[in-house]
Amino acid sequence: MSAKPTAPSPRTARPRTAKSGSADNDRLVGFYRRMLLIRRFEERTARAYTQAHIGGYCHLNLGEEAAIVGLLSSLEPTDYLFTNYREHGYAIDRGIDPNRVMAELYGRSDGVSKGWGGSMHMFDTAHRLLGGYGIVGGQVPVATGAALAIEYRGGREIVMCTMGDGTTNIGAFHESLNLAALGHLPIVYVVINNRLGMGTTVEMSSAEPELFRRGSAYRMAAARVDGLDPEAVAAAAAIAAASARDGEPYLLEVVSERLRGHSVVDPAKYRSEAEVAELRAHDPVPALAERLMREGALTPEQLEQIDREVLAIVEEAAAFADASPSPDVATLFDYTYASPVANAEGRLPGDPLFPAAPRPEDGDR
Amino acid sequence: MAVMTYRQALHDTLRDEMLRDERVFLLGEEIGVFEGSYKITAGLLEQFGPRRVRDTPIAEEGFTGAAIGAAMLGLRPVVEIMTINFSLLALDQIVNHAAKIYGMFGGQVSVPLVIRTPGGGGQQLGATHSQNVELYYAFVPGLKVVAPSTPADARSLLQAAIRDDDPVLFLENLALYNTKGEVPDDLAPGEIGRARITRSGHDLTLIGYSRTAHVAAQVAEQLASSEGLNIEVVDLRSLRPLDRTTLIESVRRTHAAVVLEDDWLTYGIGAEVAATISDGAFDDLDAPVRRVAMAEVPLPYAKGLETAALPSVDDVITAVYQTLDAVGRRHLKVGHD
User: Fold this and answer.
1) Domain B2-183 homologous superfamily, CATH
2) Half-sphere exposure of A96 (CA within 13 A, CB side)
3) Which residues fall within 8 angstroms of residue A153, CB to CB, at 6 or more apart?
4) What pLDDT shows up at residue A2?
């Protein structure tokens, strides 16, 4: 693991919650089940990618599971979520049918975005996941505008906008935080700090590597939390969400892990064996399983039962995706414009702009 | 019917659309307290208040992106970008987000956004403040780009743009704000994607948009009186979609065409128009399609250099003469050597 001399270790800063009985245990078991679903879904996704069922870029949430379930626990169904391109886990944890998420990965018509988006562009209006954005930082101004619309209407909803650590160096991030603070917009900006933007460390890219401190430039409340502890993330996210709901935007840095490369095709050779071993040692999913057993919340048999149930969901998703039809080429021009417009272009690459002129009659030659 | 300036037509239309629809609001730099760099939004802050007329920081990417997000939730933001030069700071939001969100997410949410911005050169503003880069947006499926040349079209197309469910780049021009024209009181929203033949003729088709539509009309009038030529003028009005059919129908009547554009020639709007004519009216052409465009330099400050670089009426007349010479028609008409 890369040295982080200036940052307090989130490992040691991990707050311990009181063990006060079965309600807490139930919640923690719920977290575990959700985290394991993301884990198994992403493992299945990686397999489907190597089997060439999935094309394009494909970024996995492996290592981010605790952060996802903690964050989304703070949202109401009517709140809005904007994410980046590493978002499969957010989609399924938001409640979108894993079948439709996997179908999107397969580029099929039952996919959440009807096969138009792929891995990076999950979207579902019903669950108020408003993307899935492939351009680093692109979602940040857009999410800010969604918060502006809520404020404009006097609504009670909030927006959560997640991004990676590298995004905090993009101008759009700073423009957006400034706009949100000026306008008292109901938005939580979440930085998932997994310490690496592709292969570039936070220390290499960010002159202030304690990323939550960037909120101070906009007098925005901010905090950093251990992203391997779902309870800690949920508690921090609840504070952030309450602030946003009161009209004060919030910057939450979640220190997380990326267990594999930047995308499924990245072997991550820039990481040492020791670093990888430490990552594995801190893997939040088995850590939570061990804790649940240690505290008597789950027996090994119950853990296995959860795994079987989750695997069944994931296998069904893959089967559903495989059976879903590819989008009909006849629909190629259906989504260029929402309002019909005169003279819209609707021709395939080999089509002429205009019908060919009539051939001269033989007799004319 | 009222005679008003292009500026007044824009102002009144913004006001009327805001009165008509609570979802319509304005945002941009200096549009409220300062009343707009070109005073299009004068008085609107006072009338509608800061909720609906929002002054923004100098952050084109941020506030254009925010308008996209607000549009996704069903509002109808009208963004003013002070000049089209500054829209480049928002290029990612316009091209990668506004234009993509409807299609990329399978048609689940539309982006009913208007970006108003003026192009223009010839005001000694130097290289970075004198560009006409509407081509960058006209290139992109998912965007609609309109470029009205008259106060009436400014009103009808702004109405259409605000009521449209897609992102529309609404191109204005610094040189047009003070021009006057008749605007019918009961003007209906215009139709995006339609060119208009603003002058009928049979000797040659002269094609322009925004400011160059005026230049085309002026040249046609001048050559009608001086040479007895009967030139047809097409005002494109919409750059995406491009009304190729109207172009072809005109050239099939006139058999020759000259395209005017305030952008650079290479890869410009005129190139697309010329290619369209080549595809659709090849057998009807009696001469190659000519383009009259800016000299391909960063526009200089010094007045003499700037004037030389910008297309003038005389430049257009020369191109018309040369085209008619190539056709052989000018010889017949006026006995030109």
Assistant:
1) Thiamin diphosphate (ThDP)-binding fold, Pyr/PP domains (3.40.50.970)
2) 31
3) none
4) 39
Q: Which of B66, B105, B193 sits opposite A341 (nearest CB)?
A: B193
Q: What is the pLDDT of residues B164-176, one digit of tens each?
A: 999 999 999 999 9
- The crossing angle, in degrees rounded to 10, of helices A98-105 and A22-50 is 20
Single out the catalytic residue among B17, B29, B60, B232: B60
Q: Which fold has domain A22-357?
A: Rossmann fold (3.40.50)
- What band does A89 get if pLDDT is binned at 50, 70 and 90? very high
Contacts of B61 in chain A (CB under 8 A): 141, 171-172, 175
User: What tokens does B95 get?
Assistant: 């091209």
The pLDDT value recorded for residue A359 is: 73
* Chain A CB within 8 Å of residue B244 CB: yes
Distance (Å, whole) CA B17 – CA B13: 6
| Residue in B closest to A336 by C-alpha | B142
CB pairs under 8 A between A and B: 179
- Assign A228 to helix, strand or coil: coil
- List the domain boundaries for chain A: 22-357
Each domain of chain B, given as residue ranges in start order, spans: 2-183, 196-334
Q: Which fold is adopted by the domain B196-334?
A: Rossmann fold (3.40.50)
In angstroms, the CA A292 to CA B35 distance is 63
- Of A85, A28, A89, the C-alpha closest to A56 is A85
Nearest to B51 by CA among B74, B9, B18: B18
Residues in chain B: 337
Residues of B in contact with A130 (CB under 8 A): 72, 109
CA max distance for chain A? 98
Predicted local confidence at residue A362, as pLDDT:
55
Of residues B329 and A249, which shows the higher confidence score? A249
Cβ-based neighbours of B315, under 8 Å, separated by 6 or more: B292
- The burial class, CB within 10 Å (0-12 / 13-18 / 19+), for A321 is buried
Q: Which residue of A has its CA nearest to B139?
A: A345
Closest of A248, A74, A84 to residue A172, by C-alpha: A84
All residues of chain A having their beta carbon less than 8 Å from the beta carbon of residue B249 are: none
Reply yes or no on whether B60 is catalytic.
yes
Which of B72, B112, B142 has its CB closest to that of A130? B72
Residue A88 Cα distances to A40, A64, A142, A209, A272, angstroms: 12, 11, 20, 27, 27
Q: What are phi and psi of B213, to 5 degrees?
A: -65, -35
Residues sharing a CB contact under 8 Å with residue B42, sequence separation 6 or more, in sequence order: B11, B35, B36
How large is the average pLDDT for residues A248-267? 94
pLDDT of residue A357: 72
Rounded to the nearest 10 degrees, the angle between the axes of helix B60-72 and helix A171-183 is: 70
Q: How far apart are CA A273 and CA A270, in angstroms?
A: 10
- Per residue in A204-250, pLDDT (tens digit) is 999 999 999 999 999 999 999 999 999 999 999 999 999 999 999 99
Q: Bridge partners of B169?
A: B115, B145
Residue type, A64: E
Query: What is the ipTM, given to two decimal places?
Result: 0.95
Spatial CA neighbour of A338 closest among B14, B163, B237, B147: B163
Residues 6 or more apart in contact with residue B159 via CB below 8 angstroms: B13, B17, B187, B188, B189, B190
CA distance linking residue B98 with residue B95, whole number of Å = 6
